[in-house]
Design goal:
CATH topology: Rossmann fold
Shape: globular
Number of strands: 12
Strand content: 25-35%
Number of helices: 6
Largest sheet: 10 strands, mixed
Order of helices and strands: EEEHEHEEHEHHEHEEEE
Structural class: alpha/beta
Radius of gyration: 16 Å
CATH superfamily: P-loop containing nucleotide triphosphate hydrolases
């Protein structure tokens, strides 16, 4: 069992082992969310489970973005944890709502509920995404976010999930970024150039690529 990424990243064929956790890092608006959703979509199209924690968008907007890549999502294999302060939410079985990105315990509970449901339904191969760590850092101190990510990635590893987390670069101080990076097995980095966006892979199951052109929603 492995997780294929070849339909997402414009690189050589790439696959990762179960339990791998990746950090997708790049400037704001560089396509990190789109890339992350594309990683989930490749799994959904292969009948894998998907859990998405969205700190900046409500469940309705997240589902709409997801459906641009997965036309008919299997709701039994989908879980969305939204962190919304507006009180507006979708009342669906695949949505768990938390009132604030600062409620890391609530986020963890929502993730655990979906993991338990997937396990009960026999869904073993699952892709998990959290968008974004940067939002958590705007509400909670670095030490607490590091501990949260450390515990969460360890749990994803233990059940053989693929974990993908996004982080804005150029927003946090270097020490904070380096602290968060320690949690992850590899990185997918995005950068903006005059002629568009480029991507590279570092430390991913031995893969290391140079910078290559990337277009959001490449899948």
């Amino acid at each position: 069992m492995r997780y294929e990424l070849d339909a997402v990243l414009p690189t050589e064929t790439i696959h990762v082992s179960p339990g791998t956790n990746l950090l997708v890092a790049g400037p704001p608006m560089s396509g990190k969310r789109e890339l992350t959703l594309s990683i989930l979509a490749q799994g959904a199209n292969a009948e894998e489970g998907n859990i998405f924690v969205s700190t900046d968008h409500g469940a309705e907007a997240t589902l709409a973005d997801y459906q641009t890549l997965v036309a008919a999502p299997n709701q039994a294999a989908l879980g969305i944890v939204e962190t919304t302060e507006s009180g507006a939410t979708m009342h669906e079985s695949f949505v768990h709502s938390v009132t604030s990105p600062a409620d890391l315990t609530g986020i963890g509970i929502g993730v655990s509920e979906f993991m338990q449901r997937f396990n009960k339904n026999g869904i073993r191969q699952t892709r998990f995404a959290l968008d974004s760590v940067s939002t958590l850092l705007s509400y909670v101190d670095v030490r607490t976010v590091f501990k949260f990510c450390h515990v969460l990635t360890a749990r994803l590893e233990s059940v053989g999930y693929l974990g993908v987390f996004t982080l804005d670069t150029g927003v946090h101080d270097e020490q904070a970024v380096n602290t968060i990076k320690q949690v992850f097995d590899g990185m997918v980095e995005l950068r903006e150039r005059d002629d568009g966006i480029e991507v590279r892979v570092i430390g991913l199951d031995g893969y290391r690529t140079g910078w290559e052109p990337y277009e959001p929603n490449h899948s």
